[in-house]
Amino acid sequence: MGGIQVRPVDIAKRITTRRRSAGTEAHWVSRISEHDSTIHQEFAPVSRDLGDRDWSAIDPMLVRTSKGVRHYFTGALYYWQRSRSHVWCESQEERWEVLWLDYGGQVDRLWAQPMAIAFGHGSRLSGHWHVPDLLAQFTDGSYGLFDVRPIRLVDDQARVQFDETAKVCSALGWQYRVLTGHDPQATRNLDCISVSRHDRCRPAARVEALILDAARGGRTRGELCRIVSPDCPPLACAWVDNLAWRGLLELDLAATFSSETVYTSSERVLEGTLADA
Prior knowledge:
Layout: E1 25-29, E2 41-45, H1 48-51, H2 55-58, E3 76-80, E4 85-89, H3 92-104, E5 107-112, E6 116-118, E7 129-130, E8 134-138, E9 143-148, H4 156-172, E10 175-179, H5 184-194, H6 205-214, E11 219-220, H7 221-228, H8 237-245, E12 249-250, E13 262-265, H9 267-271
Parallel strand pairs: 9-10
Antiparallel strand pairs: 1-2, 1-6, 3-4, 5-8, 6-7, 8-9, 11-13, 12-13
Helix pairs in contact: 3-5, 6-7, 7-8
C-alpha cells in the first residue's frame, strides 16, 4: 500500500469511575500505556488546564463499548482516513454521524468513548458518570465532545445528562454538540458516495480537471463518467464520486441517487479559490 500504515484496532480498557475529589473529574487511559500489562488510568479535575492539554498526544483509548444488542446493531469500525485509524461505532446512528463528520471536513481526528466524566458536587448528576460518544480534534486545533442520540430518544433524563456534559465542556474550553440525526435519504446517498472517499479513488490531476470543467454548467453522473472514460464509463464512477465527497462537485443529497443525479462544480472551483481538498 505504498508505505501506508494503519493503526491497530482499539480494545476497550475497563476503568473505575470512583471520584477522588469533591468536584467533577475526567478519567481516561492514554495510549502510552497500551502495551503495559496493567492499565494506567489517569484522572484530573475538570478545568481549563485539563482542556488545554495536548489530547492528540494523550491519544485516549476506548474506555467503554456496548455489545450492540440493545441497538439491534453489531458494533462496527469506521476507517478515519486522516489519522489512519478506526473509530468504534456502537450503533448504526453513531456510524451515520461519524460519516457526516467525515464528510463535513471540520474534524481532523476522532476518538470513540474517550473518557468517563464523574460528576461531582454541584452537578445535578452528582454521584453518576457518563462516557461521551466521541472526542474530536477540529482542523483549527480545538477540541470538542459529541454525544449521539436520535431526536426521538432525547427525553428529560437525556437532556439533563447533555446539559451537565455541556457545562463540563464549557469548563474545559471545548465545544459540545448532541448529534440527533440527518435526513435518511441524504444519509443513504452519502453512504453510497463514501465508498469512493479513499485516496485510491482520487483521480489523476488531469482527469480531475476534466471532470470539474465538464461539470461547470451541471452534468449528470452518467454523462461525466462517459466524458472521462468513454470506453468504460463505470471505471470513472469512483473518480466522480470522490470529487463529490471532497466537496468539489455539488449535488442534491436529498434526491434519489442514480446515474441521472446532476453534479455541478462547486463555488470554490468556479471562483478559482480551490485549496488542497
